[in-house]
Amino acid sequence: MANNEHTPSQIEEQIKQCILIRKYMQQIYPSDREIPESELLAFYEEQEENFSSQEMVRASHILIRKEEENAEEKAKKLREKINTPADFKNFCVQYSQCPSGVYGGDLGWFPRGKMIKEIEDVAFSLQPNEISEVFPTKYGYHILMVTDRREPHPIPFEDIRESLETSLNEFRKEFVLARHIQELRNTYKDQIEILDENYL
């Protein structure tokens, strides 16, 4: 039998130990413990600045791939013809070399940190219906238009109440368990033999 295989009795013993540990932890801090509404609300109000949605933009782009001959020049000539959002959409469908071109170049909604940096930098500097000048990325030359924008705003307490309670319970459980382990160490320090020096 290979070293990493276990007999049925060993597996049964491991399962028993897991159940005992779970029951013991449940006694120390019950997982179904409810936090009073007033306490959750007080925590929300204290930390309100941390419970807000991210600033987001929705943008569309026209891409002329860098492999295209005279790609930058073509992109700049195209940009000269674009004066309105309607122009942008028409030229995008006709000339963009990105698969998104058939959908008007729509890149969807994105917050900071989720898009190619060059596109992100330009997108967050524009207002809705504003069209960028030509700029490069590793894929080629882009013209970008921001189609919509969402400013950060507070998330209502009701929308995050459940996740707030779950997070607070987890935080408290970790704190209670850490304190309990420290108490056990202090009480039984004369009987504990630490074999791994990393835990000293």
Quick description:
The chain is α+β, with helices and mostly antiparallel strands and 200 residues long. 46% of the residues lie in helices and 15% in strands. Among the domains are: 95 residues, Chitinase A, domain 3; 33 residues.
Please describe what this structure looks like.
The structure is a single chain. The chain is of the alpha+beta class and 200 residues long. It has six helices and four strands; from the N terminus they run ααβααβαββα. A four-stranded antiparallel beta sheet has the order 2-1-4-3, sandwiched between helices. The relative contact order is 0.15.
* Topology, number of strands: 4
CATH T-level topology of the domain at 56-150: Chitinase A, domain 3
Order of helices and strands: HHEHHEHEEH
Average of per-residue pLDDT values: 85
- What is the helix tally? 6
Structural class: alpha+beta
The unreliable regions are none
Q: What can be said about the biggest beta sheet?
A: 4 strands, antiparallel
Going across the biggest sheet, name each strand in turn.
Answer: 2-1-4-3
Principal-axis shape: elongated
Helix content: 40-55%
Q: What is the top-level CATH class of the domain at 56-150?
A: Alpha Beta
CATH architectural category of the domain at 56-150: Roll
Rounded to the nearest angstrom, the radius of gyration is 29 Å
Please give the alpha-carbon distance between the first and last residues.
35 Å
Instruction: Estimate what percentage of residues fall within beta strands.
Output: 15-25%
